[in-house]
Amino acid sequence: MNSSIPIAIIGTGIAGLSAAQALQSAGYNVQLFDKSRGSGGRMASKRSDAGALDLGAQYFTARDRRFVEVVQQWQARGWASQWQPSLYNYRDGELSASPDEQVRWVGSPRMSAITRAMLGALPVKFSCRITEVYRGEHHWSLQDAESQSHGPFSHVVIAMPAPQATTLLAAAPKLAAAAASVSMDPTWAVALSFASPLDTRVEGCFVQDSALDWLARSTSKPGRDNSNDTWILHATSQWSRQHIDLAKEQVIEHLHGAFAELIGCAVPAPTFTLAHRWLYARPSAAHQLGALADADLGLYACGDWCLSGRVEGAWLSGQEAARKLLEHMQ
Asked: Would you say 321 and 26 are in contact if contact means Cβ atoms under 8 Å apart?
């Protein structure tokens, strides 16, 4: 195989960037594509009047030795920091301190700092939604939503949520069927910002018996703007699915009310609000797919949905896709 012909990678979240780095380190050219205006996927941060908001992944943990080593490198380079929140549980109408002491990491000064640093100078086309992946006699080509073609490519790595990957895997029916079998849950995320700090010790909270699943005091994370007291709320998958098409204003109103009920202090009207809908926030169950591969065709798929659903799973899945690709080329 001519290594001068680039490998296409669709998606610049953790999985796609993990695969891209591994392939580039092995001496292969890559070309990345993403439908968004920037990298990160669910690690992306949104700029707002309340500062940068981490609306997706709130933190990540590291358990696998390989990922632990990478996170330590990120920390040494200033891309990631430990977050040690005052952590609580909410159950049966009561707040209680959480005994959970596992090490949590965040991007610094925002979650997207990690993916931006991983992307570095890799060639990428943003605002480019790929709608078809097709193979000619010798190489792959891509078509985008503007009917523009991209290629040729020696291989294609699809690093997108399973429902979106399914369509692009049409050339490999077995891979498409495997991706189609993975169910992913939605999540409504809401940001609330207050002019003065709320009178509570809570900085992170796992929530039961509520429309909320999780809440975090964003300004408690390292490197964040502390000029306002900003909170991120995540609804449960069940509530999000039941209210998937609810107007954003109504989502904010409902989750703001749920937050005020449980936080245990007076909650004034926020000075800033924002809602974001993640259609494919996390897989409904953990899987052990690693990464999908049709080595003979040269088509691969990876993502957090192939493993644990966590940031670590996304990174490991990207590594596995690259490993399978490189193994076949030797």
From this structure: no
Rounded Cα distance between 131 and 65, Å, is 36
* DSSP conformation class of 60: B
156 appears as a binding residue in the annotation: no
Task: Give the per-residue pLDDT at 101.
Answer: 85
Q: What is the pLDDT of residue 308?
A: 84
Q: Is there a binding annotation on residue 220?
A: no
Residues 200 and 256 in one domain: yes
Q: How far apart are CA 262 and CA 195, in angstroms?
A: 20
Per-residue pLDDT of 156-203, as tens digits, reads 999 999 999 999 999 999 999 999 999 999 999 999 999 999 999 999
Q: Is 244 annotated as ligand-binding? A: no
Residue 56 lies in a domain: no
Q: What is the DSSP string of 212-234?
A: EEEEEEGGGSTT---SSEEEEEE
| Residue 73 belongs to domain spanning | 61-110+184-283
pLDDT of 2 over the 50 cut: no
Q: Is 211 within any annotated ligand binding site?
A: no
129 and 273 share one domain: no
Contacts of residue 121, defined as CB under 8 A and 6 or more positions apart, other chains included, come to none
Same domain, 65 and 142: no
In a domain, 126, yes or no: yes
Confirm or deny that 58 is annotated as ligand binding: yes
In this structure, the answer to whether residues 132 and 270 fall within a common structural domain is no
Q: Is the pTM of this model over 0.90?
A: yes
Q: In this structure, what CATH number is given to the domain that contains residue 138?
A: 3.50.50.60
Check the CA dihedral 301-304-308-309 and report its sign: negative
Which tens digit of pLDDT belongs to each residue from 33-81? Answer: 999 998 988 998 888 888 889 999 999 999 999 999 999 999 999 999 9
304 is in an annotated binding site: yes
- Is 206 annotated in a binding site? The answer is no
| 42 assigned binding-site residue | yes
| Residue bearing tokens 């009920």 | 261
Does 129 map to a domain? yes
Alpha-carbon distance of 10 to 17, in angstroms, equals: 10
- To the question of whether residue 62 is assigned a binding role by annotation, the answer is yes
In a domain, 55, yes or no: no
